[in-house]
Design goal:
The complex is a heterodimer of chains A (316) and B (339).
Chain A (H helix, E strand, L loop, with lengths): L1 H16 L5 E7 L6 E6 L8 E2 L9 H4 L6 E5 L1 H12 L8 E5 L8 H8 L6 E5 L2 E6 L2 E6 L6 H4 L11 E2 L14 H7 L3 H12 L7 H4 L25 H15 L8 H5 L7 H15 L27
Chain B lengths: L2 E5 L3 H9 L3 E8 L2 E6 L18 H4 L3 E9 L4 E5 L7 E6 L1 H15 L6 H8 L1 E6 L25 E6 L2 E6 L2 H8 L5 E2 L2 H17 L9 H6 L6 H5 L8 H4 L7 E6 L2 E6 L20 H20 L9 H5 L6 H10 L4
Parallel strand pairs in B: 2-6, 6-7, 7-8
Antiparallel strand pairs in B: 1-9, 1-10, 2-3, 4-5, 4-12, 8-9, 11-12
The complex binds iron/sulfur cluster (SF4) (5 copies).
Chain lengths: 316, 339
């Protein structure tokens, strides 16, 4: 991983020096344990701020959408897929971006660590050799990294960026034997009433802060449907019915485009599991259209085009 | 000032007692967070927490609130006021920073010609039972803002965990009256009070996160057009996390829901916050919006009320999805050379 950090800095420095890009978007050390924060480097002397570790969880493709200047961006597998989706949707001019692809070993879910520690605060954390050593007031524990990765990373099948201009390190073996739709299957096995109850409970604590929307690179609409007031399409209160409409429509809007990067779930301050809802749409797209988003620059998302062979059993 | 103690195992009995004449609101473990909710007999107050995920402001300033209802006919409209909430409330387990935030909100929402009656009505009927912090978090910086982990500002009673029991200190007459009704509370022993004092000074020393605000407001006076704002806003997502979870942020939007006029929480970080009917947006980008948040907290409010509009609770620090740390923002301002 340390080599990765050096390589990222080298690549960034070269890109800036050769004036291939005006800006590098990467990660720098955050202010809290197990956190990094997005870093915008324009000057050569700032390149040394760039880091690479298992807490580089922000989806930086978000910051590429709408940028006028030429940018170099550090991209994990899922980040690169979202750059591809946004490029296909004409939101990112591909030629304006230098994708610094990083084969990804998964990012840590600090909420899982918090839950494990049952109320003890992490004051320091070191990640080394597949282990996370966390320390706090009067305790020190070593946790196996693999058990504390984000759910999305657990079942990720595209750890290597499918599109890139520079690749850091070597590609990783791709396979995973985990069932990425396990959570969805358990939802599907519930009755309609049970599912309704489940979502009611899950979404009842939503404060409609829209972090889940704003963090997602696919939510690039200039004016989101929930914000429109002339006319108003949907209620803006935190009444459960209004909240649910927001979430259902958001899930529809990312269907066939979402790559399960997990950013929305990580961003939620209320620890709402948004993944299961978007994962269901991902499963439907796979079953109906044999489509996975963001694997290349040619294919258009199924909901954005019409093909004669599309399944149309709903037309009676 | 009176000092009492209560055994921890009897605390639910105290809550029960309070619930006879009041609506009791206290921290409760829900899913994986602790939130303040209305306590019903079957759920018990949880006083073993760092701080509640959401601040207590929502008790007085709910996220969605009906201001009034109306009926319209062809040539007429009739307004039906929402009934004022007269029920007495007791808020249990309010941390010192949050209790201070209520004092700031009181000032803000009661000054000037137009008072926020919806907030003030509820506030008037509330008694605040605070809970001192023995173990401040690394993100707590209350002492930099004039608070303290055992601060009493805004409280009527202050509880302190002294191992097997809570030490209770009366702060106001209102608090004293509340205690009078509970005859079975024991008077605190001298040793209990001493123990409380020791824990307080330890906790004060344990607040290690410090932010110097001495010249921040002054500097901000000269920084309205500083290029600093362009840098600082780069990673901000413009979400509502930092403002919705902030105990002092209280901006709202007003809208029509059928025949109801309701208000909902709004955030200066949202794109549409300052958007005008004409389509003009005086705060068109993240830069202006971030500037507004920082200016309001550390400059405008200081000018109008002599204090910062932040109590150092650290919620925004912990929950910002991109780790945009307000302490860093303030430090950078402080370190900035301005003309
Ligand atoms: S981030 Fe969480 S709380 Fe905020 S709108 Fe999304 S689901 Fe609701
Ligand atoms: S919906 Fe969530 S998981 Fe899907 S791409 Fe957007 S942020 Fe990532
Ligand atoms: S929580 Fe963070 S990302 Fe969201 S508006 Fe506040 S500073 Fe910006
Ligand atoms: S600005 Fe942040 S630290 Fe200050 S009171 Fe608000 S949430 Fe707490
Ligand atoms: S900021 Fe101070 S008062 Fe608030 S929870 Fe932390 S230590 Fe307690």
């Amino acid at each position: 991983m340390e080599n990765f950090e050096d390589s990222i800095r080298e690549v960034a420095e070269k890109l800036l020096r050769d004036k291939k890009v005006d800006l590098i978007i990467g990660y720098e050390q955050g202010t809290l344990p197990l956190r990094t924060t997005p870093c915008f480097v324009e000057k050569l002397e700032d390149v040394k701020k760039l880091v690479w570790n298992a807490s580089c969880d922000a989806n930086l493709s978000k910051y590429v959408v709408g940028k006028k200047e030429k940018v170099g961006v550090v991209a994990k597998g899922c980040d690169a897929r979202l750059i591809a989706v946004c490029a296909v949707e004409n939101q990112i001019p591909r030629e304006n971006v230098v994708v610094i692809g990083v084969p990804c070993q998964g990012v840590i879910d600090r909420k899982k660590i918090e839950a494990k520690l049952e109320g003890k605060e992490v004051l320091e954390a070191v990640v080394k050799d597949e282990q996370i050593k966390v320390e706090g007031e009067g305790f020190e524990v070593v946790l196996p990294k693999k058990d504390f990765l984000c759910d999305s990373c657990h079942t990720c099948r595209h750890r290597n960026p499918p599109i890139y201009d520079v690749l850091i390190g070597e590609k990783l073996p791709q396979s995973t034997d985990k069932n990425e739709f396990a959570e969805v299957s358990s939802l599907e096995s519930k009755s309609t009433e049970e599912r309704w109850e489940h979502f009611k409970e899950e979404l009842s604590t939503c404060i409609r802060c829209y972090a889940c929307r704003n963090v997602c690179p696919l939510c690039y609409c200039k004016m989101c449907f929930v914000d429109q007031s002339m006319p108003t399409w949907f209620g803006k209160t935190n009444d459960l019915s209004d909240t649910m409409i927001y979430h259902i429509v958001r899930a529809f809007h990312v269907a066939g485009r979402c790559v399960d990067c997990g950013a929305c779930t990580r961003a939620c301050p209320m620890a709402i599991n948004l993944r299961e809802l978007v994962k269901k749409t991902e499963k439907i797209m796979k079953e109906r259209y044999n489509y996975e988003a963001g694997l290349g620059l040619e294919e258009v998302p199924p909901l954005g085009e019409f093909k004669m062979e599309d399944s149309q059993e709903f037309i009676k | 000032m009176k000092w009492k103690t209560i055994e921890k195992r009897n605390f639910s009995a105290l809550v029960e007692e309070l619930a006879k004449e009041n609506e009791v609101i206290g921290p409760l473990k829900e899913k994986n967070t602790v939130t303040s909710v209305r306590i019903t007999s079957e759920n018990e107050v949880c006083l073993d927490f760092w701080n509640t995920k959401k601040p207590p402001k929502e008790v007085f300033f709910p996220q969605t609130e009906t201001l009034f209802t109306y009926r319209t006919s062809k040539n007429d409209a009739e307004i039906i006021e929402s009934p004022a909430i007269r029920k007495k409330m007791v808020l249990v387990g309010v941390r010192p920073c949050d209790s201070r935030s209520l004092v700031l909100l009181d000032k803000f929402l009661s000054s000037g010609e137009h008072k926020d009656v919806y907030y003030l009505e509820k506030r008037k009927n509330a008694t605040i039972v605070g809970l001192a912090c023995n173990h401040p978090l690394s993100t707590c910086f209350c002492t930099s803002l004039g608070g303290s982990p055992s601060g009493k500002e805004g409280m009527d009673l202050l509880l302190q965990d002294i191992n097997d029991k809570y030490l209770i200190q009366t702060v106001t007459e209102k608090g004293e009256k509340l205690l009078e009704k509970i005859s079975w509370l024991k008077d605190a022993k001298k040793a209990d009070i001493e123990k409380g004092k020791k824990l307080s000074s330890d906790a004060e020393a344990a607040v290690r996160s410090k932010v110097s605000l001495s010249d921040v407001s002054e500097k901000l006076d000269k920084m309205f057009d500083d290029p600093f704002w362009d840098q600082i806003c780069q990673k901000c997502l413009g979400c509502g996390v930092c403002t919705f979870l902030c105990p002092t942020c209280c901006c709202f939007d007003v809208l029509e829901e059928g025949e109801e006029r309701v208000r909902i929480w709004d955030s200066c970080q949202f794109l549409c916050f300052a958007l005008q009917g004409s389509g003009h947006n005086p705060r068109p980008s993240g830069k202006e919006r971030m500037r507004q948040r920082i200016m309001h907290k550390f400059n405008y409010f200081v000018k109008n009320y002599g204090k910062s509009f932040c109590v150092g609770c650290g919620r925004c620090v912990q929950e910002c999805p991109v780790n945009l740390d307000i302490r860093d923002v303030v430090k950078t301002i402080s370190a900035r050379k301005v003309e």
